[in-house]
Automatic annotation (TrEMBL):
UniProt keyword annotations, A-Z: Cytoplasm, Gluconeogenesis, Glycolysis, Isomerase
Entry keyword Nucleus: no
The keyword Kinase appears for this protein: no
Task of the protein: Involved in the gluconeogenesis. Catalyzes stereospecifically the conversion of dihydroxyacetone phosphate (DHAP) to D-glyceraldehyde-3-phosphate (G3P).
Top-level division of the source organism's lineage: Bacteria
Record's catalysed reaction(s): D-glyceraldehyde 3-phosphate = dihydroxyacetone phosphate
Record-given protein name: Triosephosphate isomerase
Pathways involved: Carbohydrate degradation; glycolysis; D-glyceraldehyde 3-phosphate from glycerone phosphate: step 1/1; Carbohydrate biosynthesis; gluconeogenesis
EC number: 5.3.1.1
NCBIfam families in alphabetical order: tim
Length: 252
């Protein structure tokens, strides 16, 4: 099955609304005529609705950077799937390493978020990744397997159509260090086999697995040329219209 590449930009905690809308307009320009790939932006919540309005006529998907599993209630500081949809969003990033490491989000919490996002039909990007210590200790596959299995616990085969996996080695996020194309491909293949084991081969073939970790205009082409790399989750370079425009327009 052909998997449509997905390039996702995570704006994290950057920019004012005016700056975000300006960048969104430039991203929309970079997407003109591109039908063989999808583009997603995850702006801060405060500007989500405004950015969505800027992108109304484009096919760019708007995503939240995290998600609660409940529709509403006493969950101070959280955002619900209904709110994301109300603001024009249709996707959610879950389990980003910054959430896991700085805000102590556990696999169990991440799994609740995944299921919550899927219950509301959001395109759900589940992030997983090993630390440098874990890689150097030879634990990469075991760590990734645990994060993937726990993150997807209770997710049905039919829901997998809305799941995207993002492999983001923690040591490569915001550090300028990128996994080599060989290292990334090896992990992506491992993850695809694991998805086939958890579900079935067809599901593994249809599931997009993104690479994230210092993706730049200079390395996107070689990463995207790998058979099991189906897109990129981009942080730093997504804040620059020119760089992100080049990444969106990767050649492979
Ligand atoms: C990220 O935050 O998901 C990320 C990959 O960041 P960067 O591209 O800056 O490494």
């Amino acid at each position: 099955m052909m998997r449509k590449p997905l390039i996702a930009g995570n704006w994290k905690m950057h920019m004012t609304s005016a700056e975000g809308c300006g960048l969104a307009a430039r991203v929309a320009e970079s997407c003109v005529g591109l039908t063989d790939r999808e583009v997603l932006l995850a702006p801060p919540y405060t500007m989500m609705a405004e950015v969505a309005r800027v992108l109304e006529k484009s096919s760019v998907i708007i995503s939240s950077q995290n998600i609660c599993w409940e529709e509403k209630g006493a969950f101070t500081g959280e955002i619900s799937p209904v709110m994301v949809k109300d603001a024009g969003g249709s996707g959610a990033i879950v389990g980003h390493s910054e959430r896991r490491q700085i805000f102590m989000e556990t696999d169990n919490l991440v799994n609740q978020r995944v299921k919550g996002a899927l219950r509301f039909d959001l395109l759900t990007i589940l992030c997983i990744g090993e630390t440098l210590e874990q890689r150097e200790g030879g634990e990469t596959n075991a760590v990734l397997e645990a994060q993937l299995r726990r993150g997807l616990e209770g997710v049905s085969s039919s829901d997998m159509i809305n799941v995207v996996i993002a492999y983001e080695p923690v040591w490569a996020i915001g550090t300028g260090k990128t996994a080599s194309k060989e290292q990334a491909q090896e992990v992506h293949l491992f993850l695809r086999k694991l998805i086939a084991e958890i579900y079935e081969k067809n599901i593994a073939e249809q599931t997009r697995i993104l690479y994230g970790g210092s993706v730049k205009p200079t390395n996107v082409d070689e990463l995207m040329a790998q058979p099991d790399i189906d897109g990129a989750l981009v942080g730093g370079a997504a804040l620059d219209a020119e760089s992100f425009g080049r990444i969106i327009n990767f050649e492979s």
